[in-house]
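okkk here we go again. third time trying to get the zinc ion bound version out, last two times i messed up the smiles copy paste (missing a bracket lol). double checked this time i swear
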Amino acid sequence: MAENRFLILMYHMISTPRSDSEIKYACTPGLFEKHMRFIRQNCNAVSLDDIVTHHIQRIPLPENSVVITIDDGFEDNFINGYPILQKYSIPSTIFLTAGMLGEKNSWMSSRGFPERKLLSWYQIKQMQDLVGFGAHTLNHVCLPEIGRDTARKEISESKAIIEENLGAEVKHFAYPYGLLNEQVVKLVKEAGFKSACTTRSGFNNSSTDMLKLRRIEIFGNDSLWKVKQKLKFGTNEASVFQPLKYYASRVVSRIAGNQHQ
Ligand SMILES: [Zn+2]
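finally!!
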């Protein structure tokens, strides 16, 4: 049953890619606008705060609820993304790498990616009317690999820094690289987060663990057609064969269902 079903989309940069390695992460402003226009016209754009409220109060979400999330906190989110989000009145959450704001994406450039500027606090504050901010650790670390005390610090201090600068509670977290284990989830809970996003794909519903929310990755070069497929099937693989696989599995389940009648 599709009760309370919702999808969370994940973006990174809203820019023209500067290298082949960035194609997956950098969505051009023109394409981002097409995606947002489609979502405004065909879905119900809701915020992670809305998700938490609906979850606590156990009230169903609107049909086709979609949450926009943007990871890492790149400066282009303000320069290119924010005007588009404003134009279509789409709420979103940007997950900030809180210890590196105003600096560059060294966790990527050290692996051969182009250097990119991260948001400044001034830019973040400009977006506060429409955009919510979540935490994404201080230094974009691999949480399961750094030891419990360091992981605790990365999680709780990223929350504290953003709260101090914005004067608002930070309720949402995203695991860098989508890496987590039970200890990491426990630390996120202890820090006081109400939701946490993974990179595992799929639909969420009222029984999904709020600290293990699934997300659909939108690649930088995903055409509008691909985004529509991803929204329809709740998967990262939006290949031309997906509809066939989907309908084939429905036929199989219908046959299986008939056998039980
Ligand atoms: Zn990240």
